[in-house]
Each structure stands twice: as C-alpha cells, then as structure tokens.
Amino acid sequence: MNKKLQIFKYVSADIVTAVIAWSLFFIYRKYSESQGIYISKDIILHDMNLYLGLAFLVPFWIFLYILNGSYRRIYRKSRIKELSQTFFITFFGVIPIFFFFILDDKVISYKTYYHYFFVLFALHFSITFLVRFLITSNTAYKIHNRIIGFNTIIIGSDENAFSVYRELDSMQKSAGNKFIGYVNGTNNGKCMLSEYLPNLGTYDSLKKVVDEYHVEEVIIAIEKTEKEKIEKIITQLEESSIIIKAIPSIQDFLLGTIKTNSIFGPPLVEISPDLFYFSQYILLLH
Fold first, then answer.
1. What are the φ and ψ backbone dihedral angles of 210, each rounded to 5 degrees?
2. Cα–Cα distances in Å, from 106 out to 26, 47, 98, 102, 228?
3. What was the pLDDT predicted at 282?
4. Is 217 helix (H, G, I), strand (E, B) or coil?
5. Is residue 172 within 8 Å of residue 144, measured between CB atoms?
6. Which of 262, 259, 285, 252 is nearest to 274 (CA)?
7. What's the whole-number mean pLDDT along residues 110-119?
C-alpha cells in the first residue's frame, strides 16, 4: 500500500472541495447582495476578496484536518466517523470564517448573517463529505475484497491463535488483515499455526519482527497459561505506531486499557499501550 498516495488523495480532495465551497458561497453572496441587479462573472472573478479568501481558507481547513488527525490511519477510516468528524470540524471551522469574512460594515439584518452562516456550512460540509465518502468507500471496497491489506502477525501459536486466524482468513468480507506469520514463546515449529503461517520469531524478537516485516497490526491470541507474558509483549510494542488487538479472553487481565473494536470476523478489542501499566499496577494490588 502507498500510504503517501492515499494521504495525497485526501489532501488534494480537501483542497479542491474547500476552493469549490468558498467560490460557490462567494458567488451566492454576491448575487444575494445585488438585490436582483445583474452581476457579470468578470466582476466576481476580478474581486480580490475571492482570492484573499481562498489564500487564507485553504491552508486553514487543511490545518484543522491535520489538527483533528484526519490524515492518520488513512486506510482505516470509518464512513460513520468520517461523517461526524467532518460535521464538527466544518461547524467549528465556519465560526471564525464567519467573523473574519462574512461580518462587515454593511447594514444587514442578523437573520441574513445566520442565513450566510448556514449556507457556507452546508456547502462546505456537503461537498467535503461527499468527496471523502467516495474515497473512503472505494478504499473499503478494496480492503473487503483483499485488493489491499495490512501486514498482520499473530502472537500465539496454539488453539486461540489458530481459531482467530481461520476466522479472519475465511471471512467473505476481509477485515484487511494480510497475515505474514506468527510469533510465539519458542522457535519450535510444531504447533497448530505452523502449517499455515511461518514462525517469525519469539516474544523477545517481537520489535525486530515488527520493523523488519513492516507490520501494521498485531493480534494477541496467547493461551490463558501465558498471560504472565503479556507485559513483555506490550513492552516490545509500546513504541511502535501499530494497531494492537487481542481476543476477549485477555480483557479481564487488561481491565480498562481496551476499547471495543467492531470488525466483520471474531470480536477483538483494541489495546492502548499507554494505559497498560496503570491496570497492571491495580492487578498487583490484588
């Protein structure tokens, strides 16, 4: 996968939609203020306020999107979350634009101001979300049909790991996991997963495996008898910017460090390494 290309698609789309939304709003406002008097397109195109607005607003919107993390996890966007994020970013972004670019010294009723606010919001939100929705939907289609996938390793080798692997690998709609191997407690190749995936190393070499194979997602599926090794596993992964998931049987051990993660296959929970040591401390008190 070309992450930079995907980011470029979203950034380019956001730039284009910001230009279109502001231009349409600018034209709409010009005609509204003309009170029926014909305005030629040359008058609009030669109005420097159009271009001053674009020079400020395009970087402004991109800055807000970056600040909100819109370009992180670029291949894992949820269309529902995209809708809510775009809505709130647009709402709070239009507020300063309203005060800097819409309010002026002309005698216009407050009702007109509210009307302009709504028009700018509606234009920017609808155009931006529509284009983002199309890009995200196309990406989701490629993921579900295994055209693109995320390098994934399973931590574990016995029944739990084998069960998770078979369920995820046999799904009609892929969750995006491209399994490249597994890591377990020993280098012993005689285990349930060894017939399907290569053994990439042990828990001690986990960080090296993640770096060497450009791993993007790790699924922890160790047996209950190995729970004491969870600290070693999390320690190896805490500095890596990868997604860590675990089977629900580890949920009690991790207490509050997980959040629900809905995928098409077996229920997995996403782990936050930052909160692990707090829950570990609580466990030690028991």
1. -60, -45
2. 16, 17, 14, 10, 71
3. 36
4. strand
5. no
6. 259
7. 84
DSSP SS3 for 13? helix
User: Which pair of structure tokens corresponds to residue 76?
Assistant: 């894992």
| Cα–Cα dist 156/270, whole Å | 17
Report d(CA 286, CA 271) in Å as an integer. Answer: 22
Residues present in the chain in total:
286
Amino acid at 224: K
Residue 269 scores a pLDDT above 90: no
Report yes or no: 185 and 155 within 8 Å, Cβ to Cβ. Answer: no
Structural domains of the chain in order of their starting residue, each with its CATH number: 3-144 (no CATH), 150-284 (3.40.50.720)
- Within 8 A by CB and 6+ apart from 273, the residues are 234, 237, 238, 244, 257
Contact between residue 120 and residue 21 where contact means Cβ atoms under 8 Å apart = yes
Distances (CA, A) of 103 to 90, 93, 97, 113: 18, 15, 9, 7
- Please state the pTM of the whole predicted model: 0.80
pLDDT beyond 90 at 129 = yes
